[in-house]
Amino acid sequence: MGSEEPSPKKLKLSGDVSKTEKSDYVRILADERQKAAESVLEFKFNKKRVKILSSAQDVPDWAEGVVYWMFRDERVQDNWAFLFAQKLALKNEIPLHICFCVKPKFLDATIRHYKFLFKGLEEVASECKSLNIEFHLLIGNGEEVLPGFVEKNKIGAVVVDFMPLRDCLSWAQTLKKSLPKEVPLIQVDAHNIVPCWTASDKLEYGARTIRGKITRQLPEFLTQFPPVVKHPFSGKLKADKIDWEAAEKSLQVDRSVGPVTGFVPGYKAGISVLQEFCNKRIKMFGSKR
Fold first, then answer.
1. Name one GO biological process term (predicted).
2. Average pLDDT taken over every residue of the chain
């Protein structure tokens, strides 16, 4: 459980990134992943990022796939939950499936939020297809629709990402009770550099008290990501063609707040914004933020 990942000294990027072209950060990050490891199976994964929520801990012999229930971390690369799910699937030589469950309503999210979300998920689905990973868009609350999906398709493990809101934590607990008892439910903090449950063992009341705890653990957790690779194992379960229009119609949200221009969804667009910030705006951040 205490295995450490490569030293953060490997985080240095090659060359002067301030002189790169618009799309180069995507290429540079891909190159850095390849330097970290050929795949997650060869990478020394720090298991402190992982919590096993169920009594079952091992993928059963009859398993015909692993599922990653994607919710908070909607990307393929640089995603510890996705990587751990692929690690399990590679180790057991079975297919990998990604499920995104479209909740009819989530907090006060409007149609603006969901349109942005769906466009980003289209990119995720396309990348999954290129990697021989089936991406399933399920309509309904995950804790309600996933148990049937798991049982019907002989899924041997479910990986979920981590979101600290009480409602989201309760979904995982509800799912745990509904899964077949032989199927492990595993949570991975893919959102924080230092996993939330490792950063502190108590409720913190201010940044001053937790800042030092996080900083002390950065050498262990601030590391490179290995790549999510083309998955070598396929199965009979194939994803249905996604009807994005039907998914949108299933929503019970405020439709008066429409999309805005100037904000492009998806991982690649996000990396482009990061590069533009690093190259042009970071020098003004201290005085004009």
1. photoreactive repair
2. 91
